[in-house]
Amino acid sequence: MPGGDEIQTVEGLGDPDDLDPMQAAFVAHDGRQCGDGTPGHLTDVHSTGLDAIEGMPDGGLRIGAMVRSADFAAHERAPRDCPAPTRALVAGASGQLRDKAASEGNLLQRTRCPCFFDANQPCNTRGPGSGCGLLEGASRQLGLVGVPQACIATHPSDMAVGPRAPGATVETVTAEGEARAIPLAEFLRLPDDTPEVETVPAPGEFVAAATPPAPAGGRQGCRKVRGRASCAFAVVSVALVRRTDGTG
């Protein structure tokens, strides 16, 4: 190993009668699967501090990338200070999924466009330059207004809608420790001519947190219209902030 470093495999973390928490999770979630898909590396990221919700000096909240959606929605300040993001989370998926899903993982979902998942269909997101198989078709979950010709897919995340209205930012960090704050409105790219590039962060740059700003006054709301009451992607999703001081 370079520099004399050592690698400890998952087998060396505990013993059969006293499993390490990572070993126990590996077993509980069927990590080994059939053997062909067994992960080559396991990394414990729970000591990174990314699972905390912190109050900001300006009155906003900093939501760590590993905060579960259910924990954020249940936080004592969330309904009062972040009503639009909170309502978006509660409208997303099911209670079971919210209890497992990370808030920022929600932001990084891939499109649910049928062409993206069907290798027999052309898809500019999956294969740049191959075309879009649904430009002339019909789907209730694809874009209708102001869409480019390269891709009409929409983003499935409820977290992409709720926090955008009040002006949330996304914090990222590179492997070299360089941090930046990206407005959520810019973090998720529109398909345009390069639909294969879905987010702004560069390779090796990871999401550390999302930061909804301090309450701006007025009222916030988020409305999701879907085909059924639970665990369905939006047909239409809208978030807004109505300010009573005449500024918006």
> Number of DSSP strands?
7
Q: Please state the average pLDDT score.
A: 79
Question: Strands across the major sheet, in which order?
Answer: 1-2-5-3-4
Overall CATH class of the domain at 50-109 and 155-242 = Alpha Beta
- According to CATH, the fold-level topology of the domain at 50-109 and 155-242 is Uridine Diphospho-n-acetylenolpyruvylglucosamine Reductase, domain 3
Structural class based on helices, strands and sheet pairing: alpha+beta
Helical segment tally? 8
- Intertermini distance: 59 Å
Q: Name the shape in a single word.
A: globular
Shape-level CATH architecture of the domain at 50-109 and 155-242: 2-Layer Sandwich
Region (Disordered): 1-20
Protein name: Xanthine dehydrogenase YagS FAD-binding subunit
Organism: Albimonas pacifica
GO molecular function: flavin adenine dinucleotide binding; oxidoreductase activity
